[in-house]
Amino acid sequence: MSRHRLASAAAGLLVVVLGLAACSSASSPAAASSSTAATGSTSPHLAAVRARIAHYTQDPSWVSPGPAIDPARLSGKKILVIPSSSAIPFCSDLSTDMASVARPYGVTVTQYANQGEPSQWVAGMDQALSTHVNLVDLTCGLNPSSLGPQITQLKAAGIDVVSAHAYDPSQPPMAGLSAVVYAQYNLVGQLEADWAILQTSGHGNILVVSDEGDVSTPPLLAGIRSQFAQYCPSCTVSFVYIPIPDWATKIEPAVAAKISSDPGLDFLIPIGDGMVQYVMPAMVAAGATGRIHIASFNATPSVIQTMQTGTTVTFDVGEDFPWLLRAILDQDFRVLLHVTPSPSEYAPLRIFTKQNAGDAGHPPSFQNGYGNAASINFATLWKG
User: Fold this and answer.
1) Is 326 exposed, middle or buried (0-12, 13-18, 19+ CB in 10 A)?
2) Cα separation, 148 vs 282, whole angstroms
3) CA-based torsion, 354, 357, 358, 361: positive or negative
4) Phi, psi (rounded to 5 degrees) for 51
5) For residue range 323-368, what is the model confidence (pLDDT) as tens digits?
6) Which of 175, 247, 278, 334 has minimal CB crowding within 10 Å?
């Protein structure tokens, strides 16, 4: 999962909010407030979350996004992908693999590399206009509303704009987009919380490490909060919010400080696994290795490898990566072919734990671990 922050977010802003009360909505981080942990029986709760975990540990099953299409008719078309940040491996690999899959159909896909700065996204949109591409994909959590004037300008020039991987299905997309590819962020948050509840036997003290300002963050956090509220009344949950450009400098000291100040902390949820590389040094510095464990999202190969070889990362939920890149292309193809876009295009989820992390390969790859439903069925779907 990749995330970005609003242009107005102040550099270095760090807000730590403890507790769960007043946090069940998808409101801004500052709206969260403290509460004390409740007590109660958790056995039925543990059975429910255990069943959900078991369901999403299986390989995804195929569901067609729509009627068959013929992308070979699009030979010569050009697509520019602007991710929220190319520095996040999930985002850069997504663009690279989209290019490989589109190439046999004569469609050129290129990435506008950036480091997550709004000014760079604007520059990417300007490049799309000046080079006369046919379609722009705003991917990997990039909030389309941050580029409203540019989207209007491109649409006026006959250039389609597709939002991919920014909105949860519960969120209405902004007007002016040609199509949307959703991501199941609320469900991701639920599953992250489920694992923490299960691993702490319903009595955990959990720190959630989040970004801020990204359109995908509110539904993900809402999923986390709803699960803890419903299934773990005895859990204590705290939150820390850090913008993407500050991850490298702000996450480690913030997490280390929290571990040092709260000896009872026993679980960490960095909501996207691009944060894990900064969270783990904080655990080492605080002497918490082996005591505190991690659950995250995106199934980045380096994090899956850490799971395979160590004991700190115990859970990583990933979107079927081969499915996701093809889902984005499928929606792009439908737009460029002037057929009705799919109303519910998205990739399914699969959970990786120590028990099935080997399915991702040795070494792990984004392409492995999800079965072959996507590669087989999209190829058939695209024969027109």
Assistant:
1) buried
2) 38
3) negative
4) -65, -40
5) 999 999 999 999 999 999 999 999 999 999 999 999 999 999 999 9
6) 175
